[in-house]
Amino acid sequence: MATNTLSFTKMQGLGNDFVVLDGINQQITITPEWLRQIGDRRFGVGFDQLLLVEKPDHPEHDFKYRIFNCDGSEVEQCGNGARCFARFVVDKGLTNKSRLLVETAKGVIEPELGADGLVTVNMGAPRFLPEEIPFIASTNEVLYELALSTGENVTISTVSMGNPHAVTVVTDVETAPVESFGPLIEKHERFPEKVNAGFMQVVSRQEINLRVFERGAGETLACGTGACAAVVAGIRQGLLASPVLVNARGGQLSIAWNGDNQPVMMTGPAVTVFEGMLPAASK
Ligand SMILES: N[C@H](CCC[C@H](N)C(=O)O)C(=O)O
Fold this sequence. Notes:
Elements: E1 5-13, E2 16-22, H1 32-39, E3 49-54, E4 63-69, E5 74-75, H2 79-91, E6 102-104, E7 107-113, E8 119-122, E9 144-147, E10 153-160, E11 164-169, H3 178-186, E12 196-204, E13 207-214, E14 218-220, H4 224-236, E15 244-248, E16 251-257, E17 264-268, E18 271-279
Parallel strand pairs: 2-3, 4-6, 11-12, 13-15
Antiparallel strand pairs: 1-2, 1-18, 3-4, 4-5, 6-7, 7-8, 8-17, 9-10, 10-11, 12-13, 13-14, 15-16, 16-17
The structure holds 2,6-diaminopimelic acid.
Protein backbone atom coordinates (compact mmCIF):
# COMPACT_ATOMS: atom_id res chain seq x y z
CA MET A 1 0.00 0.00 0.00
CA ALA A 2 1.45 3.38 -0.99
CA THR A 3 2.38 5.26 2.17
CA ASN A 4 0.30 8.20 0.96
CA THR A 5 -2.98 6.36 1.47
CA LEU A 6 -4.83 5.50 4.69
CA SER A 7 -7.31 2.72 5.43
CA PHE A 8 -10.55 3.97 6.98
CA THR A 9 -13.87 2.56 8.16
CA LYS A 10 -17.15 4.36 7.42
CA MET A 11 -19.58 4.04 10.35
CA GLN A 12 -22.86 5.53 11.50
CA GLY A 13 -24.79 5.91 14.71
CA LEU A 14 -28.45 6.70 13.94
CA GLY A 15 -27.41 8.25 10.63
CA ASN A 16 -24.79 10.52 12.23
CA ASP A 17 -21.90 9.35 10.09
CA PHE A 18 -18.19 9.02 10.62
CA VAL A 19 -14.89 8.22 9.00
CA VAL A 20 -12.90 6.27 11.62
CA LEU A 21 -9.10 6.04 11.41
CA ASP A 22 -6.65 3.82 13.30
CA GLY A 23 -3.98 6.31 14.31
CA ILE A 24 -2.07 3.68 16.30
CA ASN A 25 -1.02 1.48 13.39
CA GLN A 26 -1.00 4.32 10.83
CA GLN A 27 0.95 7.57 10.80
CA ILE A 28 -1.76 10.20 10.24
CA THR A 29 -1.37 13.92 9.60
CA ILE A 30 -4.56 15.95 10.13
CA THR A 31 -5.07 19.43 8.65
CA PRO A 32 -8.32 21.45 8.45
CA GLU A 33 -8.05 21.55 4.66
CA TRP A 34 -7.65 17.74 4.45
CA LEU A 35 -10.62 17.24 6.82
CA ARG A 36 -12.83 19.47 4.66
CA GLN A 37 -11.66 17.67 1.49
CA ILE A 38 -12.33 14.13 2.87
CA GLY A 39 -15.51 15.26 4.59
CA ASP A 40 -17.03 16.72 1.44
CA ARG A 41 -20.17 14.78 0.40
CA ARG A 42 -19.31 15.12 -3.32
CA PHE A 43 -15.55 15.56 -3.67
CA GLY A 44 -14.61 13.29 -0.77
CA VAL A 45 -15.86 10.36 1.32
CA GLY A 46 -18.27 12.55 3.29
CA PHE A 47 -18.77 12.55 7.07
CA ASP A 48 -20.32 14.57 9.88
CA GLN A 49 -17.25 13.88 12.02
CA LEU A 50 -13.89 12.11 11.62
CA LEU A 51 -12.84 9.97 14.60
CA LEU A 52 -9.17 9.27 15.30
CA VAL A 53 -7.98 6.37 17.50
CA GLU A 54 -4.75 7.05 19.37
CA LYS A 55 -2.78 5.58 22.26
CA PRO A 56 -3.84 7.01 25.65
CA ASP A 57 -1.74 9.58 27.51
CA HIS A 58 -2.24 7.62 30.75
CA PRO A 59 -1.51 3.86 30.90
CA GLU A 60 -4.58 3.10 33.02
CA HIS A 61 -6.76 4.13 30.07
CA ASP A 62 -7.33 2.11 26.90
CA PHE A 63 -7.40 4.73 24.13
CA LYS A 64 -7.42 8.41 23.28
CA TYR A 65 -10.35 9.55 21.10
CA ARG A 66 -10.03 12.67 18.95
CA ILE A 67 -13.00 14.16 17.10
CA PHE A 68 -13.06 16.51 14.10
CA ASN A 69 -16.11 18.17 12.53
CA CYS A 70 -16.46 18.24 8.74
CA ASP A 71 -15.74 22.00 8.82
CA GLY A 72 -12.21 21.13 9.98
CA SER A 73 -12.61 22.01 13.67
CA GLU A 74 -11.41 19.67 16.43
CA VAL A 75 -13.96 19.27 19.24
CA GLU A 76 -14.17 17.86 22.74
CA GLN A 77 -16.84 15.16 22.55
CA CYS A 78 -19.11 13.13 20.26
CA GLY A 79 -21.67 10.71 21.65
CA ASN A 80 -22.73 8.77 18.55
CA GLY A 81 -19.05 8.67 17.64
CA ALA A 82 -18.14 7.18 21.03
CA ARG A 83 -20.32 4.15 20.33
CA CYS A 84 -18.81 3.71 16.86
CA PHE A 85 -15.30 4.21 18.30
CA ALA A 86 -15.88 1.32 20.73
CA ARG A 87 -17.28 -0.93 18.00
CA PHE A 88 -14.29 -0.09 15.76
CA VAL A 89 -11.51 -0.85 18.26
CA VAL A 90 -13.14 -4.16 19.24
CA ASP A 91 -13.84 -5.24 15.63
CA LYS A 92 -10.29 -4.28 14.59
CA GLY A 93 -8.80 -6.33 17.44
CA LEU A 94 -7.16 -3.26 19.02
CA THR A 95 -8.51 -4.47 22.38
CA ASN A 96 -9.97 -7.65 23.83
CA LYS A 97 -12.11 -5.69 26.33
CA SER A 98 -15.79 -4.85 25.90
CA ARG A 99 -15.75 -2.03 28.49
CA LEU A 100 -13.21 0.71 27.76
CA LEU A 101 -11.72 3.80 29.39
CA VAL A 102 -11.34 6.37 26.63
CA GLU A 103 -9.63 9.75 26.96
CA THR A 104 -11.25 12.71 25.23
CA ALA A 105 -10.29 16.38 25.20
CA LYS A 106 -12.70 16.89 28.12
CA GLY A 107 -12.45 13.87 30.41
CA VAL A 108 -12.67 10.08 30.27
CA ILE A 109 -15.76 8.32 28.88
CA GLU A 110 -16.60 4.63 29.33
CA PRO A 111 -18.24 2.84 26.40
CA GLU A 112 -19.38 -0.75 26.89
CA LEU A 113 -20.48 -3.10 24.10
CA GLY A 114 -23.65 -4.99 25.01
CA ALA A 115 -24.56 -8.54 24.01
CA ASP A 116 -27.58 -7.09 22.22
CA GLY A 117 -25.35 -5.19 19.78
CA LEU A 118 -26.09 -1.83 21.41
CA VAL A 119 -23.40 0.27 23.06
CA THR A 120 -23.84 2.05 26.41
CA VAL A 121 -21.53 4.98 27.18
CA ASN A 122 -20.91 6.69 30.50
CA MET A 123 -20.61 10.20 29.08
CA GLY A 124 -19.54 11.77 32.35
CA ALA A 125 -21.38 14.41 34.34
CA PRO A 126 -22.96 17.46 32.65
CA ARG A 127 -21.66 20.93 33.47
CA PHE A 128 -23.82 24.06 33.79
CA LEU A 129 -21.76 27.06 34.93
CA PRO A 130 -21.54 29.71 32.19
CA GLU A 131 -17.75 29.50 32.18
CA GLU A 132 -17.97 25.71 31.77
CA ILE A 133 -20.15 25.88 28.64
CA PRO A 134 -18.67 28.50 27.74
CA PHE A 135 -21.56 31.00 27.63
CA ILE A 136 -21.47 34.73 28.40
CA ALA A 137 -23.94 35.32 31.26
CA SER A 138 -23.80 37.39 34.47
CA THR A 139 -25.64 34.73 36.54
CA ASN A 140 -25.98 30.94 36.48
CA GLU A 141 -29.57 30.10 35.45
CA VAL A 142 -31.55 27.09 34.23
CA LEU A 143 -33.07 29.22 31.45
CA TYR A 144 -31.71 32.20 29.51
CA GLU A 145 -33.25 34.54 26.93
CA LEU A 146 -31.07 34.72 23.80
CA ALA A 147 -31.66 37.71 21.51
CA LEU A 148 -31.06 36.72 17.88
CA SER A 149 -29.78 39.11 15.21
CA THR A 150 -33.22 38.88 13.55
CA GLY A 151 -34.81 40.56 16.57
CA GLU A 152 -36.45 37.33 17.76
CA ASN A 153 -35.73 35.82 21.18
CA VAL A 154 -35.30 32.15 22.07
CA THR A 155 -35.40 30.67 25.57
CA ILE A 156 -32.47 28.28 25.99
CA SER A 157 -30.97 25.95 28.55
CA THR A 158 -27.17 25.59 28.34
CA VAL A 159 -25.39 22.30 29.10
CA SER A 160 -21.82 21.11 28.51
CA MET A 161 -21.23 17.40 27.83
CA GLY A 162 -17.63 18.33 27.23
CA ASN A 163 -18.92 20.13 24.15
CA PRO A 164 -21.36 23.07 24.37
CA HIS A 165 -25.14 22.76 23.89
CA ALA A 166 -28.03 25.25 23.83
CA VAL A 167 -31.42 23.51 24.06
CA THR A 168 -34.75 25.16 23.30
CA VAL A 169 -38.20 23.56 23.83
CA VAL A 170 -40.52 23.60 20.80
CA THR A 171 -44.10 22.36 20.31
CA ASP A 172 -43.26 20.32 17.18
CA VAL A 173 -39.76 19.46 15.90
CA GLU A 174 -41.11 19.11 12.34
CA THR A 175 -42.08 22.79 12.24
CA ALA A 176 -39.27 24.05 14.50
CA PRO A 177 -37.05 26.83 13.00
CA VAL A 178 -33.98 24.56 12.84
CA GLU A 179 -32.67 25.84 9.49
CA SER A 180 -33.27 29.52 10.35
CA PHE A 181 -32.47 29.70 14.08
CA GLY A 182 -29.86 26.88 14.13
CA PRO A 183 -27.03 28.86 12.52
CA LEU A 184 -27.94 32.02 14.47
CA ILE A 185 -27.68 30.15 17.78
CA GLU A 186 -24.59 28.15 16.67
CA LYS A 187 -22.57 31.30 15.97
CA HIS A 188 -24.18 33.59 18.58
CA GLU A 189 -21.65 35.99 20.14
CA ARG A 190 -22.55 34.82 23.67
CA PHE A 191 -20.99 31.43 22.78
CA PRO A 192 -17.28 32.22 22.35
CA GLU A 193 -16.58 28.66 21.12
CA LYS A 194 -19.90 28.45 19.20
CA VAL A 195 -22.55 25.91 20.26
CA ASN A 196 -24.69 22.94 19.19
CA ALA A 197 -28.34 24.05 18.96
CA GLY A 198 -30.96 21.50 20.09
CA PHE A 199 -34.72 21.74 19.41
CA MET A 200 -36.64 19.48 21.81
CA GLN A 201 -40.34 18.51 21.70
CA VAL A 202 -41.62 16.90 24.91
CA VAL A 203 -43.78 13.87 23.98
CA SER A 204 -44.13 12.67 27.57
CA ARG A 205 -42.09 12.81 30.79
CA GLN A 206 -40.04 9.91 29.39
CA GLU A 207 -39.95 10.62 25.66
CA ILE A 208 -38.82 13.51 23.47
CA ASN A 209 -38.40 14.26 19.78
CA LEU A 210 -35.14 16.07 19.03
CA ARG A 211 -33.43 17.83 16.14
CA VAL A 212 -29.92 19.27 16.50
CA PHE A 213 -28.18 21.87 14.36
CA GLU A 214 -24.62 20.84 15.16
CA ARG A 215 -21.67 23.18 15.59
CA GLY A 216 -19.35 22.71 12.65
CA ALA A 217 -21.61 20.26 10.79
CA GLY A 218 -25.15 21.67 10.45
CA GLU A 219 -28.25 19.58 11.12
CA THR A 220 -27.40 15.88 11.53
CA LEU A 221 -29.77 12.91 11.66
CA ALA A 222 -28.83 12.42 15.31
CA CYS A 223 -26.55 13.97 17.92
CA GLY A 224 -25.55 11.84 20.92
CA THR A 225 -24.24 14.60 23.15
CA GLY A 226 -27.22 16.70 21.98
CA ALA A 227 -29.56 13.97 23.22
CA CYS A 228 -27.72 13.89 26.56
CA ALA A 229 -27.91 17.69 26.84
CA ALA A 230 -31.61 17.83 25.92
CA VAL A 231 -32.58 15.18 28.49
CA VAL A 232 -30.50 16.87 31.21
CA ALA A 233 -32.04 20.24 30.35
CA GLY A 234 -35.56 18.73 30.39
CA ILE A 235 -34.99 17.04 33.77
CA ARG A 236 -33.58 20.29 35.24
CA GLN A 237 -36.74 22.12 34.07
CA GLY A 238 -38.98 19.47 35.64
CA LEU A 239 -40.30 18.40 32.20
CA LEU A 240 -38.70 14.94 32.07
CA ALA A 241 -37.92 11.95 34.30
CA SER A 242 -35.01 9.52 33.71
CA PRO A 243 -34.67 7.36 31.65
CA VAL A 244 -35.82 9.19 28.53
CA LEU A 245 -36.37 7.81 25.01
CA VAL A 246 -34.99 10.28 22.46
CA ASN A 247 -36.44 10.14 18.92
CA ALA A 248 -33.92 11.61 16.50
CA ARG A 249 -34.55 11.68 12.75
CA GLY A 250 -32.11 8.80 12.35
CA GLY A 251 -33.48 6.63 15.17
CA GLN A 252 -33.76 6.23 18.93
CA LEU A 253 -31.40 6.69 21.86
CA SER A 254 -32.01 5.94 25.54
CA ILE A 255 -30.59 8.51 27.96
CA ALA A 256 -30.46 8.16 31.77
CA TRP A 257 -29.35 10.74 34.34
CA ASN A 258 -29.96 10.73 38.10
CA GLY A 259 -29.18 14.41 38.56
CA ASP A 260 -26.48 16.56 40.13
CA ASN A 261 -22.95 15.34 39.49
CA GLN A 262 -24.09 11.90 38.31
CA PRO A 263 -22.94 10.68 34.89
CA VAL A 264 -25.22 10.70 31.85
CA MET A 265 -25.65 7.17 30.42
CA MET A 266 -26.40 6.90 26.68
CA THR A 267 -27.40 3.67 24.91
CA GLY A 268 -27.77 3.19 21.17
CA PRO A 269 -26.49 1.45 18.02
CA ALA A 270 -23.13 1.62 16.24
CA VAL A 271 -22.95 0.30 12.68
CA THR A 272 -20.05 -0.38 10.29
CA VAL A 273 -21.00 0.58 6.72
CA PHE A 274 -17.86 -0.06 4.61
CA GLU A 275 -14.05 -0.08 4.58
CA GLY A 276 -11.91 1.93 2.20
CA MET A 277 -8.68 3.72 1.38
CA LEU A 278 -8.26 7.50 1.21
CA PRO A 279 -5.44 9.89 0.30
CA ALA A 280 -3.29 10.98 3.25
CA ALA A 281 -2.83 14.69 3.90
CA SER A 282 0.36 16.06 2.40
CA LYS A 283 2.84 16.84 5.19
N1 LIG B 1 -20.73 18.94 16.38
C1 LIG B 1 -20.31 18.62 17.75
C2 LIG B 1 -19.43 17.34 17.77
C3 LIG B 1 -20.19 16.08 17.36
C4 LIG B 1 -21.34 15.76 18.29
C5 LIG B 1 -22.37 14.75 17.79
N2 LIG B 1 -22.18 14.18 16.49
C6 LIG B 1 -22.63 13.67 18.85
O1 LIG B 1 -23.03 12.55 18.49
O2 LIG B 1 -22.48 14.00 20.05
C7 LIG B 1 -19.53 19.81 18.34
O3 LIG B 1 -18.99 20.59 17.57
O4 LIG B 1 -19.48 19.90 19.58
